[in-house]
Specification:
Layout lengths: L2 E12 L6 E11 L2 E11 L9 E7 L10 E11 L2 E7 L9 H4 L1 E2 L2 H5 L3 H15 L1 H6 L6
Parallel strand pairs: 5-7
Antiparallel strand pairs: 1-2, 2-3, 3-4, 4-5, 5-6
This protein binds zinc ion (ZN).
Zinc ion binds next to loops.
Length: 144
């Protein structure tokens, strides 16, 4: 499959605790002719340890006529370990603030990790860090 990462919108604001710049990127993961997921990634400069970046993926059908009933949303945070950054799946309701009508049913960590969705979810995360220079830099990925 040919993956393409589309940045739909980017926002910056001052972090409420430290005043550093917080970044939010909304976008889509496309593969060939279809859209596999919408994503939202948020992080704050210089703030990776106590306030890790988080990633939300709303997976399923997108496009005209589709609704949240055709999607599920899963979330993870990017934690720093001795071996480098690593994704840790969380209950998406702890980071997802948007309605299930838009992003789909909020999955718990157990629902993601215990199902077939986990491999799909981690592949999409990989594609996002591969296809976006800004997001890739969060995981230490260097783009040519
Ligand atoms: Zn802060």
């Amino acid at each position: 499959m040919n993956y393409e990462i589309e940045h739909d919108s980017e926002h910056e604001q001052d972090c409420s605790c430290c005043g550093n710049t917080s970044h939010t990127i909304f976008g889509y993961v496309h593969a060939d002719e279809s859209t596999l997921a919408a994503f939202c990634v948020k992080w704050t400069d210089g703030h990776e340890l106590d306030n890790p970046p988080w990633f939300l993926l709303s997976m399923g059908a997108w496009g005209d006529g589709s609704t949240g009933e055709e999607r599920v949303t899963a979330g993870c945070i990017l934690i720093q370990t001795d071996d480098g950054p690593r994704f840790s799946v969380v209950d998406s309701s702890s980071v997802e603030w948007r309605s299930p009508d838009l992003v789909g049913r909020h999955l718990t960590r157990d629902q993601v990790m215990g199902g077939e969705l986990a491999a799909h979810f981690f592949n999409l995360l990989d594609q996002i860090t591969l296809g976006s220079e800004q997001i890739g830099s969060l995981v230490g990925r260097v783009h040519a």
